[in-house]
Protein: Extracellular solute-binding protein family 5
Amino acid sequence: MRKWFAGLAAVVLLAVGTAPAEAAEPGGAKVIRVGATQAMDSMNPFLAVRLVSSSIHRWMYGFLTVPDAKTLQPSPDLAESWTTSPDGLTWTFKIRSAKWSDGQPVTAQDAAWTFTKMMTDDGAKTANGPAVENFASVTANGQDLTIKLKTPQASMLDNPVPIMPKHVWEKVGDIAKYEADSYPAVTSGPYIATEHKKDQYVKLKANPEYWRGAPKIDELQVIFYDNPAAAVVGLKKGDIDLIGRLAPPDFEALKGDDNIVQWNTEGRRATYLQVNHGATTSDNKPIGDGHPALKDPRVRQALHLAIDKQKLVDEVQSGLAKPADGSIVPPMYKDFFWQAEGGAKVSFDAARANKILDDAGYQKGADGIRTMPDGSRKLQFRFSIHTDTPIEDKLAEYLTGWFKDLGITLTTKRLDSSKFTEETGTTALFDLAISGWSVNPDPEEVLATHLCSRRPTASGEGGGTESFYCDPQFEKLYQEQQKELDRTKRAAIIKQMQERLYTDAPVIALYYPNNLEGYRKDRIAGITPIPEDRGMLYGGSSYWPFYTVEAVTADAETDSGSNTGLIIGIAAGVLVLAAAGFFVARRRGGVADERE
Structure:
């Protein structure tokens, strides 16, 4: 559920080895290695908000439902079936007969404990708090899990919360401080985490107790690189087998290698500017040091008008993206996608932007820089981006030039992923920041990141905000779409929510990046994208590609011509983003610190 693109913590693959990886050796283990340019923020699913973390946790844990590989509609996972009451307030899920990786049975009590913990512990709400805000009670009876809601909730079958083993996690003291670094982890999904070295790698082995059957490979390794260029070199050398969510320059660098398949499909994320419009905590206390001018919607509108989005697509994204004229939900989700039309569309118009600022009283001084109407402060903004992410530096260059034409100074502030997440999501020590989100098939979660309740508490806990937004109109629409069970009517309300964000501009959508990935066909024999019809591999919203991935065996002949439906697999051990920050699973950050 949160922000993203390439942010990175220091890295290297020492512990995993630097020699070219073999997908499989005669009689040996079948291992797939995936490169990532975003490191795990936490192995604790209650706390992890980065995209790479969410992806890895999808491979490890079961959920009530998962997106169908063909339609992306909810399909059974740990819940093998479900019923709902006529009033839509009571849902009963039948938990299937399955086992945890330690041999203990999966029960409805595990799910009830997981949800109840999130309802009663602020620390446990960090990653997916909004998913349980509408829950009145959760109980278990045998294998039946009953969830009673406060109001009907249309997204109940798209719950993003991984179910945790009660017998393991109930022993944890303070969830907010628990890193879940005891291995092997106890899981119910396709893979079991067996080793994690901060900022370097995560190793996962196939789970023989998985209810669908063990994956076709033995081990997945996710290797964290400290920059996309190094990851691309690693793919070319054979140190890794797959990498996803590449920035255009790194994707283009893969051309010309007969062993590497370039995978270019429609993406599931939006890139946007986060604006500090006057951040507050969940108890409405001011927080941070954002520039006061950004509280003025006229200033935010002027900034929006000063951005030539098509030029950003053409020259920053090398044409491998689509300009965002409205929706924070990408075009691949046609039912929920919204785009401004006619007079409502904010098009590049520097003259109009300047006039808005002139009329609002932000006058230019002798140095050409505007000041607040009362003359108290110049319009000098910081632009927070990630350290060592060239594409964000390039974006900053364009914005700096355009804003200078408005009489606004923009200074680039480079932060590592951890500091970036802290300053743009908790302490609010920023003015403008690069951001974005990988959106799930049901967009409710990405919309929820703009709710009042997602702001951090006074002590800096909980939250998961994408914008520090708290708007009565947006809140009302959010509640309405929750109650609307008719998909068409609900989609219309969700589009109104996106229009509100577009108009008020706590975030300014820039473009929708293509999903750019690369994999070695001499290592990966097959993999199923999601959706299966020309979908995503590394960046998909399900474990399916990694569950189905197959390694090339030593005695197999590689068909260099076909990339039928096995394509790229982020194969086995993957989950990390590259440059633009990968995977989806909500998280906040920026191009580098991707969230799903």
The chain has two domains: 31-259+521-572, 269-514. Residues 1-22, 557-596 have pLDDT under 50 and may be disordered.
